[in-house]
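Hi again,

Forgot to attach this to my earlier email, sorry! This is the prediction with magnesium ion bound. I've pasted everything inline since the attachment limit keeps bouncing my files.
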Amino acid sequence: MTESYAIIANDLTKNFGKVCAVNKLNLKIPYGKTYGLLGPNGAGKTTTVRMFNAIISNTSGNASVGGYDLLTQNEDIRRICGFLPESPGLYSKLSAKEFLEFIGELYYLPKDIISVRINELLELFDLEGRENDLLEGYSRGMKQKVCLCAALIQDPEIIFLDEPTSNLDPATARMVKNLISELAKKAEKTVFICTHLLDSAEELCDIIGIIVNGELKMEGTPKEIIESVGAKDLEEAYLKITGASHIDDLLAWREENSNNNTVNNKRQKKSKKKNKTSR
Ligand SMILES: Nc1ncnc2c1ncn2[C@@H]1O[C@H](COP(=O)(O)OP(=O)(O)OP(=O)(O)O)[C@@H](O)[C@H]1O
Ligand SMILES: [Mg+2]
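Structure tokens for the complex follow:
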């Protein structure tokens, strides 16, 4: 039944010309769970969340988010979802407060609620006192904080976060991880995270999916994934599953080079000695 899952994908596919970014993705994510999508650069993570948020259209297959059909009810999907994009576009000539008011109005939130939420979020992200500064003068991490505020302002039922802790200082990254955990556990939100941070994924996610070249290679709890490939932790499991465990072979050239250098150095020393004695 569609209603019992927050996110369902049925053979969801996206091609960009000849590039198949996401290939027949099948997912079922229950409400209240935190799902982590992992995978190498270019694997299809961002494309997947952009499709789920109806930012880009899919080539074939279908999905439902919050019980709404991606093809026919994408307005409803946008209404109930919060989305932190990978490379957010901010209106640099607006202040953080103006930008968040604008986002709140896009969700048709009443003005008094917008004002209360903005104050709460600015306090949470330690941006109080800077809210009237133009966004063009914000640091990268401060911009990321404003985007997280924007993703959370309408108290969404389902939250998509594409690399939520990138650019954040360690203390803020920890705060965001705690916040994600609280949103999932206390507020029973469904959270979908794309990340490269395996320790964060292991800490936060109930279910992890590993995508490689647009195809979902494995799915399960962190423990199931680790055990299924006989790894000692999620990092080792990830490297095995994504085929990156041959990284030592790839780096073999360094050893060869250093061996060659040693041989060359010995040769050079020998020929110098020879030159000295023949003089
Ligand atoms: N707008 C686009 N036009 C053409 N190709 C695209 C576009 N967006 C993504 N792609 C391609 O789709 C594939 C998947 O990209 P995507 O951004 O989804 O990867 P990702 O898993 O999010 O990678 P990263 O970890 O680097 O963020 C890549 O081959 C990429 O070049
Ligand atoms: Mg990405």
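The pocket of adenosine-5'-triphosphate (ligand 1) is lined by residues 16, 19, 21, 39, 41-47, 86 (CB under 6 Å). The chain has two domains: 2-242, 249-279.

That should be everything now.

G.
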